[in-house]
Amino acid sequence: MDYRRLGASGLKVPALSFGAGTFGGSGPLFGAWGNSDASEARRLIDICLEAGVNLFDTADVYSNGASEEVLGEAIKGRRDAVLISTKTSLPMGDGPADYGSSRARLIRSVDDALRRLGTDYIDLLQLHAFDAGTPIEEVLSTLDQLVRSGKLRYAGVSNFSGWQVMKSLAEADKHGYPRYVAHQVYYSLVGRDYEWELMPLGLDQGVGALVWSPLGWGRLTGKIRRGQPLPKKSRLHDTASFGPPVEDEHLYQVMDALDAVAQETGKTVPQIAINWLLQRPTVSSVIIGARNEEQLRQNLGAVGWTLTPEQIRTLDAASEVTAPYPYFPYRRQEGFARLNPPAV
Questions:
Q1: Would you please indicate which residues are annotated as catalytic (active-site) residues?
Q2: What is the mean pLDDT of each run of 10 residues along the chain (344 residues)?
Q3: 18: region left, alpha or beta (phi > 0 left; psi from -120 to 50 alpha)
Q4: Residues 284 and 13: beta-carbon distance below 8 Å
Q5: What is the CATH number of the domain that holds 117?
Q6: From CA 90, how far away is CA 314, in angstroms rounded?
Q7: What is the C-alpha to C-alpha distance for residues 145 and 222, in angstroms, rounded to an integer?
């Protein structure tokens, strides 16, 4: 397993990490992902650790805390062998103190997560969404307090826009608070919006990407093809509305390219899609998920080899879409690109 620095921090993370959204799954979204109990989770974690995957990502909203609880049970006795990443800020109830990133909410959320995980520290806490109702200085000063108390090692964000990340980093620099070192983002061959603003920001500011849904919300499993109905067992029947949209023709175009590269390499479509991500700038780790051992071992096969430059160009061309303003001139006009060349 390849290990990479998480952004500009000193923390080394594996190129592949494991998403624990399938642990304790319940409800229309997380129940469709999977529902591994502690015994099943322990086996999946065993396989991960054997392969060098030691970063496990979860969130308080995953099955209303059950994912953290199952993960905590599954790592008992080997806390020092793993890195735990969790997230907070999204609603955990209907009360006014049940959502957001206020000082009171963050302190309580971290304490609740520590209890569910059965640990006394979290390696990486990420704000799951930007809280426009709480001053950024309040958020950062609270994270600083939590780091100084030993409850957190590092802080990051997820699903932020560029200006939200940049304003937060400026405030952190101004007051000497911990900088965000990670941004957990959606990025895939059928969703390359990350490249337009957040990737250049990550390069400039030392913010590493932790990629969620690298298979385009389950669309790049190799089971969806042009002219064929959606497989009966696909979780997209129940969860498509929760995830990022993809135009059918764009998906089929990407799938054609993936199939061509699969024939050349002998690798599976998911392995190719993940390997492509691992070649992109700022990507510190790609978060893989699995409902069972077979899926996990297949995803682990995405590392240990590299796509050729020609294969990468084939996938790039098939997956490229026109960037929105003000980004498209820098990709389509030489004069603009000379002043500010795209990150990829």
A1: 62
A2: 97 98 73 75 97 98 95 96 98 93 98 98 98 98 98 98 98 98 98 97 98 92 76 57 80 96 97 98 96 94 97 97 92 90 87
A3: beta
A4: yes
A5: 3.20.20.100
A6: 38
A7: 46
